[in-house]
Amino acid sequence: MVKINENFLKLPGSYLFSEVARRINAYTTAHPGTEIIKLSIGDVTRPLAPEVIKAMHGAVEEMGTVEGFHGYGPEQGYEFLREAVAQGDYTARGVDIRPEEIFISDGAKSDCGNIGDIFGVDNVVAVCDPVYPVYVDTNAMAGRAGEYQEELGRWNRLIYMPCVEANGFSPEPPKEKADLIYLCSPNNPTGAVISREKLKAWVDYANANGSVILYDSAYEAFITSEGVPHTIFEIEGARTCAIEFRSFSKTAGFTGSRCAYTVVPMELERGGAKLNALWNRRQCTKFNGVPYVIQRGAAAVYTPEGRAQIMSNIDYYRENARVIREGLTGAGLTCFGGVDAPYIWLKTPDGLGSWEFFDQVLAQANVATTPGAGFGPSGEGYIRLTAFGGAEATRTAVERVKGILR
Amino acid sequence: MVKINENFLKLPGSYLFSEVARRINAYTTAHPGTEIIKLSIGDVTRPLAPEVIKAMHGAVEEMGTVEGFHGYGPEQGYEFLREAVAQGDYTARGVDIRPEEIFISDGAKSDCGNIGDIFGVDNVVAVCDPVYPVYVDTNAMAGRAGEYQEELGRWNRLIYMPCVEANGFSPEPPKEKADLIYLCSPNNPTGAVISREKLKAWVDYANANGSVILYDSAYEAFITSEGVPHTIFEIEGARTCAIEFRSFSKTAGFTGSRCAYTVVPMELERGGAKLNALWNRRQCTKFNGVPYVIQRGAAAVYTPEGRAQIMSNIDYYRENARVIREGLTGAGLTCFGGVDAPYIWLKTPDGLGSWEFFDQVLAQANVATTPGAGFGPSGEGYIRLTAFGGAEATRTAVERVKGILR
């Protein structure tokens, strides 16, 4: 008789976004004709850049000819893209990352989950609180999270690192020894970044303890502040303790086109094994590469024209973030994030709970948000707003929220 | 200190294809100017069908506009494709499979490996011998294969089902109780198919023992013989014991475009859990869907024009298979497969070993093949030839091989 993976049965329902959707539906059903503006969506809305479109058309054309057809590509990604990434995202910043350390993939979500394949089940995992749920759920599925404690909203084998106002929403190395540490900067959901000094402390902690930092910098392109690290490999010592996840999703609008990459430095070894070799073996065995057409599109992001075009889209979202942040701050609310990230982490007024304020904003301003409590216990008392909507709708939403505060 | 997944260290090198490449290189280095024809490649060479190209261009165009842009799609695939698959590959054959039972993915290789996530580590796995290495390696990585026995070329916890001339290269239900059973029909590497009667026996075995059959029918489009099942769901009882993997790779030339699907029937339950729900949870947590552009291309395969065009490519490969099979049979060799599959399983003459005959054909005919022994112990004494090359090159290769036999 087949035994299923019992860890799956321990997973609580993916409550957050379905509950948000349920409440929006309930409201619009009860109030037909109401137009809800969604500052809750974590998805981009701007079209792909013209250079990306041009490159994809060119690649599609090739695929229709005998001479230009591409069958199986390298599981690690085409050299043209690995080299463009190494040059554009690392060498250009003075960071030494070579093409053979870059693995092109179909998404940072896939990579953040699949990376667990190369690690033992008995590692102790540390995550931020609040947290992007994929880190938690994939470790729970693999058996690293222990048991889910319904009343606490936590797993009993995970280390939760509170990210709260007092520490600038930046996690501190825990007292317990963590083996695998997920860091996300710029952060989803808080919009906070980890400073160079704090990141150096993390690298030192990891090297001292033999830990591995799983560094998610999917929102790197949104960094505007001087001195904030764009990659963990800017930090001395990171090559012996860190794996970095990057994505074209938010950088270049690839959420529906699926391209990302993971960097595993050659020096990174644990238990006598090179993690680059282990990840390479995992990818070669369980993955068959990213479509040629998509990789050609992603490579176009690194041309001067492509770069200018994607930065113009990012500027569009940054302006939305500014409108939200300045608008709501001006109205007396307390906002975090939104400077180096597309997310604004808004403190609820009058000590309201996340869901209470969510309901109030939905009913009175007809604006959808995401309750912070849904990302973990330390998210209670916050809501997340995103800058990925249309500029006009975003301005309207901010005015509406301001209206209910008067 | 991070513990790596020790199972990775037990994996033998992926010897087969690298050794084939090494021997070809060594030969061409020693004999410069020699042109080697590769009947060893398992990759398609015909360009994408014009309807697929048209659909992809259309989708790329959409992605460049605000109105037509697509961000995150459903993890399970777009309804337009799930419905086209359900209708085109199942309903049209009188088989009841619904869109919600179909999960669009980036490849059968990914799915065959990732499906292990939903099953416990303590299941007993049965594989064919010879076998597509992905089934074995992914289970070894997960800890289900036990220890690798170098001298036997086998893992000590796997059940190997010999597929040999005596049983028509069709696996028999083992005496031991197998929990997870990988079946591949049409088969890679033997080119054999499992008959309706034999497949019914497998379904009965699985239902009686609570096993799950993981049915890989990536080469289904190559079936020409009357009465051969195109899907396991033609067999009564399969909905309570089988998962099916399909791919656009060989059907529509998508090896470099990455689209496939997995079918998990609603009735399939083990340990009180619906496997459809478990797989859905796995995909939603560790995968983010297939690119919109690619799904539009895949859907074009189900239009009348698209269908006619891909069948014309398949006919091209079938003709290659016929040329190989009839040519070599006519020259006194014994060939299996090649009727319902793009693979010809050639018995080496004079009791030669796989690698011996490989070397002989390489040196004397300048044709590259794949030694059967590389797919498992029961593959010894065979070589695999593929029909995916150019028509002209395939004819030349067959003449050359015939030449060395005279």
Tell me what you see in this structure.
2 copies of one chain form a homodimer. Chain A is of the alpha/beta class. In chain A, 38% of the residues lie in helices and 15% in strands. Chain A has helices at 7-10, 15-30, 50-63, 79-90, 108-114, 133-142, 196-209, 249-252, 275-286, 292-299, 304-330, 354-365, 391-405; strands at residues 37-38, 102-105, 125-129, 148-149, 154-155, 159-162, 180-184, 212-216, 242-247, 260-263, 269-270, 273-274, 334-337, 343-347, 367-368, 370-371, 382-386. In chain A, the strands form 5 sheets. A 7-stranded mixed β-sheet of chain A has the order 2-10-9-8-7-3-6, with helices on both faces. Chain A has a 4-stranded antiparallel β-sheet with strand order 13-14-17-16. In chain A, β7 (180-184), α7 and β8 (212-216) form a beta-alpha-beta unit. In chain A, α5 (108-114) runs parallel beside α6 (133-142). The longest helix of chain A has 27 residues, at 304-330. Chain A starts with 6 loop residues before the first helix and ends with a helix. Chains A and B meet through α3, α5, α6, α9 and α10 of A and α3, α5, α6, α9 and α10 of B.
